[in-house]
Specification:
Length: 122
Amino acid sequence: MTTNIKYNGSAKSGGIKHWFFQRWTGMLLICMLITHFVISHFHGHPYVTYDMVMERLANPVWKFFDLSFLYLAAYHGIMGVLAVVSDYKISAILKVTIYSVAMAIMAYIVIFGTITILSVNV
């Protein structure tokens, strides 16, 4: 008994690029998460205060770090959701609806996260 498996994409369709980038963003996110926890929660102070967060966000290096963390997490998350949805055999209308809702949620998080990070000036 043979099973026919149909591959819908190709390297030219961008599928392999997204697959590799998903792996790289995952590894970068783990490194960034560990860096965040070590510096923010385990280094120096036993607790984090509002003033400490505002002081850290006023630093351009931390703004770059936080924006990179936000954008990588958003990309990684949305591509993961889209990959899971594309694996299921559902109607085209439902697939487009799920894609649209996921993109709208990601856009909301990225826009307001960027505004929040960039608006801090101490």
